[in-house]
Amino acid sequence: MGSRRNLSKKSAILDFIPYLVLTIVVVFLLFPVYWMVITSFKRPIDTTTPTLIPFVDFQPTLRTWTDIVFGFNFYQSVRALLNSVITATVSATLCVLIGGAAGYGLSRFRFEKWKNRDIASFVLAQRMMPPAVALVPLFIMMNYLRLIDTLIAIILIHTAFNLPFAVWILKDFFDEIPVEIEEAAMVDGCTRTDAFLKIALPLAAPGLVVSWIFCLAFSWNDLMVVLAMAYNKAVTLPWMIATGHSMRALEWWTISAYGTLAIVPPMILAALIQKYIVRGLTFGAVKG
């Protein structure tokens, strides 16, 4: 009896360990978000002390949010939010459109002089290049084209930086689609373009959504390009977060409010299309 009890205790402990580790990881990941959210509701004097529980450790206030949404910073906040939405959405859409066509070409056609594998490796290598290396040439180019502090410049640069990722991941998705389906459609009279638009793209829809989400996230979170190319009209939320200070000191309450505002739209979007993200990430994972 004693040995059985010991075994049951050991089994219970072993079963409990994964939950304990998972809880620690979740707390570790979510605590900074919680701290940022509650800091946005603190008075400036409360941000200097480690207060964690609203209505217990400190009295929440809407002063910062009122200033951002209705007060002095209203115009800047709305403009930064709209700029973030426009640049992220348009650049992600361009990446999926161009990357889908390029990925399909690399998946379905065989090139002789420059092998498909070499082309794919070259495309991926562009994504590995640090963006800071190209900022000065890009600034000179955009200044010559009079595109500094415009959304067009940021959209073009984000598209150029994120396009290799879209091409690579969409090529893998098209590789998982049996080519016999398109061949059967072409036997029935479809052209190669029809097979691409009516057969391959619908089947690769989860991959398109995943690519679009990742490209949107990269563009939404970018600071370096916006900091170099924008100063007034084309600023985005990361720019507002990075410059959330006054002449006296960092305004942690303002930075936290802009940070909270920046994570809300992606969270809502991820919740709405969660099933497509899961399908896209697991597409082709099981073969048999």
Q: How confident overall, as mean pLDDT?
A: 85
What share of the residues does DSSP label as strand, in percent?
under 5%
Run of helices and strands: HHHHHHHHHHHHH
So what's the overall shape? Answer: flat
Task: Tell me briefly what this model is.
The protein has helices spanning 2-39, 63-69, 74-108, 116-128, 131-144, 151-175, 179-187, 192-203, 205-221, 224-229, 237-242, 252-272, 274-282.
Describe the structure.
- This protein has helices spanning 2-39, 63-69, 74-108, 116-128, 131-144, 151-175, 179-187, 192-203, 205-221, 224-229, 237-242, 252-272, 274-282.
- It starts with a helix and ends in a 6-residue tail after the last helix.
- The protein has 288 residues and is mainly α.
- It is 74% helix and 0% strand.
How would the blueprint of this fold be written?
Elements: H1 2-39, H2 63-69, H3 74-108, H4 116-128, H5 131-144, H6 151-175, H7 179-187, H8 192-203, H9 205-221, H10 224-229, H11 237-242, H12 252-272, H13 274-282
